[in-house]
Amino acid sequence: MTRIYDKVYFADAMTTLEHATLSVGSSAVLYGLSVYTVLPVCIAKEGASAFRLSDHYKRLINSARIIGIDTFESAWSERRFTEAVKAVVAANEIAEDVFVRATIHVVDMLPGTRSRGLKTVLSIFIYEATPILPPDGARLKTSVWRRIPDHAIPSRAKVNGAYVNSVLAKQDAIDSGYDDCILLDADGHVCELSAANIFIVRDNTLITPGFTSDLLEGITRQTVLEIAHDIGIQTSERNIDLTELYIADEVFACGTSAYITPVLEVDVRSVANRQVGPITARIRELYLNVLHGKETSYQRFVTPLL
Length: 306
Ligand code: PMP
Known about the structure:
Elements: E1 7-10, E2 13-16, H1 27-31, E3 34-44, E4 47-51, H2 53-67, H3 78-92, E5 98-106, E6 120-128, E7 138-146, H4 163-175, E8 180-184, E9 190-192, E10 197-202, E11 205-208, H5 219-230, E12 235-237, H6 242-247, E13 250-255, E14 259-266, E15 269-270, H7 278-291, E16 302-304
């Protein structure tokens, strides 16, 4: 089991995991009415540092805006949010890389199916940084489930209730003996994995589905695009057909908890002869260095926490 650290931020104070609880009558529990983000905190010689904290804060605020959760933003500046993350990391005295899960919960009791003007509570806890995909390479299956379209539950809002879609798709993949799924959008275009974005390489161009393909606007995805640009690899954000995965030179998944994971198989078809392709290997190495603050030209992404 993944280790969750005991000191938790909940409802404006530090407490313990056991005491950070929501009522069965709250909207968060009744309707999955919470929005969240998960961001990496890495340990280096200089101490702990958070990766793209500001972007995670912005995405969290945007998720709340999309859903209509309107009581959080005015009370929680980026500075206050950063201080709360710092407090949790400091209290737990970490000696390893961790993931920080920050969630805005709507805690009003039985307000009905609405979102505005309701009381919110922020929770922040940390857990050991265990990858959600096998680091050496993943086997994927096209899901029988489709990604929820923007006009039903928008994927760019990271809302807890919507993750039932990911659970259905991932469990279907596991039941069929795979590591994870490929979710297609309603038109049959490739969208993402259950909790990671996807890239393919064709003729030395790095291709990923665009923002309007019902996907989460992944912060790792953005980092990969920036790294590729900086090292002169051509990129394209466009629709990807499922059959392009079958003939791609390379495929990889990316996300905070997926890091950069090479994809070795899709629907019983080998990808890149089941090897880690050269562009995947290059991006992965650079990404891990950037994440750990080892690339001086990407220091803007790193926030020292201690
Ligand atoms: N898509 C989904 C559905 C996710 O849950 C995640 C993980 N947050 C991602 C993509 C990757 O996003 P990020 O790089 O910001 O972790």
